[in-house]
């Protein structure tokens, strides 16, 4: 993703539709709609990349608003976007110093043209500024914005983001080498190994390693945050082993910490002295880059562990499905043959046990395979899903009353699992003639599923969602655990109360508290 462009969209009357149409034309353009007075306040307080303005504004006749902007921001891209246009207005605007002039019309392509002009103006402005700047001349806000643009690009992998971070650091710090290192100071022979790198220094390439005692980073990891060396010789590094090996005249690097332990460093360097000290803004950039690397590496480690756990769960589920269900199917088949030859009340008991084992396998498979996350959510109609779920529950004498028109953002398949298991739980514990109601919570924070059965004692309400917990000898003990898993996967909450009929009432809160 290219660098974001924060744009002020300035009109006399509120025009949210225009601002939205502009933002929709480009994923680079972030639009803030404002009146002229508020726009000047925002320009003074925040980092704005471009101003889009009408011609005549309240309190500002003609191009006087442009003059007010140019007083403090003489080179900032300014696009005049007006329906009051004419050749005379266009000439006046260009002479006054607008960057672009776009006539406003009823054409559906007008906002596409406006977005293109904004991007062209801002890109040219940034390129010109970059060419004119030397080391240490970027502000903290500018450096943070550059870092934000890279780190928030969800389409890039960690390796791709790291490569762009290193490229950004090399460019903004005016240093040719950038690298991410891996360090284990507790090893028998502590070493520094290069994981990723930018630049052509032969010793700072991926896979290269050296004793930690010969690395600049040995001092970086002993600091609270970072180490900055603007002129190695002037700062006493001439006889240091690191200088003798790498001959780096300038260096800045930060520690990378993963799960509370040292991972390595993120560094930038040159064989030449820098000429000017590192600024506070540049030091802040290194701190933030190092923290970003720490967070991303920790996220990668957690994600990898979750993937391994899921693989183990899937292997377990496959064994469960094959090694348990196959002999269970054989037992069921033999049971039917036995019924043809014998009449015995014991066969009914065996059949019940076989059915219960089948239900147990189904529940455990569901828990193992679904996990505690959702991926494809949509706005789901509770009424429709509750009734669909009811059709999958053996409830010939039970009744369902749906008293809600609510829709919730959910994964429909998982939400049906929630309803099915709550319905089965009611039938198992309240009897086949139970009446079940689905309705809205009084505070409009979610919905409930209630029955008119015996209810759940207050002292048991914290335990019923545990795996294997059941007060019914015929139950698997996994139904409410599945319900809790679905709730957690959606970042909802669930609690138990007493229904109006004295039964159980499960309250699911879907709104953020």
UniProtKB/TrEMBL annotation:
<dbReference type="Pfam" id="PF00072">
    <property type="entry name" value="Response_reg"/>
</dbReference>
<dbReference type="Pfam" id="PF02518">
    <property type="entry name" value="HATPase_c"/>
</dbReference>
<dbReference type="InterPro" id="IPR003661">
    <property type="entry name" value="HisK_dim/P_dom"/>
</dbReference>
<dbReference type="InterPro" id="IPR036097">
    <property type="entry name" value="HisK_dim/P_sf"/>
</dbReference>
<keyword id="KW-0067">ATP-binding</keyword>
<dbReference type="GO" id="GO:0004673">
    <property type="term" value="F:protein histidine kinase activity"/>
</dbReference>
<dbReference type="GO" id="GO:0005524">
    <property type="term" value="F:ATP binding"/>
</dbReference>
<dbReference type="InterPro" id="IPR001789">
    <property type="entry name" value="Sig_transdc_resp-reg_receiver"/>
</dbReference>
<dbReference type="InterPro" id="IPR004358">
    <property type="entry name" value="Sig_transdc_His_kin-like_C"/>
</dbReference>
<dbReference type="GO" id="GO:0000160">
    <property type="term" value="P:phosphorelay signal transduction system"/>
</dbReference>
<dbReference type="Pfam" id="PF01590">
    <property type="entry name" value="GAF"/>
</dbReference>
<dbReference type="InterPro" id="IPR003018">
    <property type="entry name" value="GAF"/>
</dbReference>
<feature type="modified residue" description="4-aspartylphosphate">
    <location>
        <position position="54"/>
    </location>
</feature>
<dbReference type="InterPro" id="IPR029016">
    <property type="entry name" value="GAF-like_dom_sf"/>
</dbReference>
<dbReference type="InterPro" id="IPR036890">
    <property type="entry name" value="HATPase_C_sf"/>
</dbReference>
<dbReference type="InterPro" id="IPR005467">
    <property type="entry name" value="His_kinase_dom"/>
</dbReference>
<keyword id="KW-0808">Transferase</keyword>
<dbReference type="Pfam" id="PF00512">
    <property type="entry name" value="HisKA"/>
</dbReference>
<dbReference type="InterPro" id="IPR011006">
    <property type="entry name" value="CheY-like_superfamily"/>
</dbReference>
<keyword id="KW-0597">Phosphoprotein</keyword>
<feature type="domain" description="Response regulatory">
    <location>
        <begin position="1"/>
        <end position="119"/>
    </location>
</feature>
<protein>
    <recommendedName>
        <fullName>histidine kinase</fullName>
        <ecNumber>2.7.13.3</ecNumber>
    </recommendedName>
</protein>
<keyword id="KW-0418">Kinase</keyword>
<keyword id="KW-0547">Nucleotide-binding</keyword>
<dbReference type="InterPro" id="IPR050736">
    <property type="entry name" value="Sensor_HK_Regulatory"/>
</dbReference>
<dbReference type="InterPro" id="IPR003594">
    <property type="entry name" value="HATPase_dom"/>
</dbReference>
<feature type="domain" description="Histidine kinase">
    <location>
        <begin position="319"/>
        <end position="513"/>
    </location>
</feature>
<keyword id="KW-0902">Two-component regulatory system</keyword>
């Amino acid at each position: 993703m290219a660098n974001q462009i924060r744009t002020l969209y300035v009109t006399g009357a509120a025009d949210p539709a225009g601002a939205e149409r502009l933002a929709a034309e480009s994923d680079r353009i972030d639009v803030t709609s404002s009146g002229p007075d508020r726009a000047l306040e925002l320009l003074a307080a925040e980092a704005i990349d471009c101003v889009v303005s009408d011609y005549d504004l309240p309190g500002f006749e003609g191009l006087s608003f442009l003059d007010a902007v140019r007083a403090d921001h003489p080179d900032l891209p300014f696009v005049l976007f007006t329906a009051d246009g004419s050749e005379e207005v266009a000439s006046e605007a260009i002479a006054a110093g607008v960057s672009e002039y776009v006539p406003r019309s009823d054409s559906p392509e007008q906002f596409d043209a406006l977005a293109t002009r904004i991007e062209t103006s801002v890109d040219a402005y940034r390129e010109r500024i970059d060419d004119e700047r030397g080391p240490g001349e970027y502000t903290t806000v500018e450096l943070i914005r550059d870092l934000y643009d890279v780190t928030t690009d969800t389409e890039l992998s960690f390796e791709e983001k790291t490569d762009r971070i290193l490229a950004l650091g090399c460019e903004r710090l005016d240093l040719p080498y950038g690298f991410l290192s891996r360090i284990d100071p507790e090893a028998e022979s502590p070493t520094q190994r290069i994981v990723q790198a930018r630049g052509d220094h032969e010793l700072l390439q991926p896979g290269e390693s050296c004793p930690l005692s010969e690395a600049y980073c040995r001092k970086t990891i002993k600091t609270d945050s970072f180490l900055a060396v603007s002129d190695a010789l002037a700062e006493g590094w001439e006889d240091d082993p690191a200088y003798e090996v790498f001959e780096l005249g300038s260096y800045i690097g930060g520690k990378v910490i993963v799960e509370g332990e040292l991972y390595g460093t993120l560094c930038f360097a040159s064989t030449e002295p820098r000429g000017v000290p590192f600024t506070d803004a540049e030091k802040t950039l290194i701190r933030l880059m190092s923290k970003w690397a720490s967070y991303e590496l920790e996220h990668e480690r957690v994600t990898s562990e979750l993937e391994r756990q899921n693989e183990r769960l899937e292997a377990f589920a496959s064994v469960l499905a094959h090694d348990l269900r196959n002999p269970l199917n054989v037992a069921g088949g033999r049971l039917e043959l036995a019924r043809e030859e014998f009449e015995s009340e014991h066969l009914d008991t065996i059949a019940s046990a076989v059915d219960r084992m089948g239900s147990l396998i189904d529940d455990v498979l569901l828990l193992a395979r679904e996990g505690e996350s959702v991926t494809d959510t949509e706005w789901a109609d509770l009424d429709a899903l509750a009734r669909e779920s009811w059709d999958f529950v053996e409830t010939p004498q039970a009744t369902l009353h749906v008293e809600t028109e609510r829709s919730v953002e959910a994964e429909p398949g998982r939400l049906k699992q929630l309803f099915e298991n709550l319905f089965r739980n009611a039938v198992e514990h309240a009897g086949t003639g139970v009446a079940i109601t689905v309705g809205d919570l009084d505070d409009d924070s979610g919905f409930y599923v209630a029955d008119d059965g015996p209810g759940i004692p207050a002292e048991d309400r914290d335990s019923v969602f545990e795996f294997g917990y059941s007060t019914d000898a015929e139950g698997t003990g996994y139904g409410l655990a599945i319900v809790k898993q679905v709730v957690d996967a959606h970042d909802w909450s669930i609690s138990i109360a007493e229904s109006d009929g004295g039964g159980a009432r499960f309250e699911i809160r879907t709104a953020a508290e």
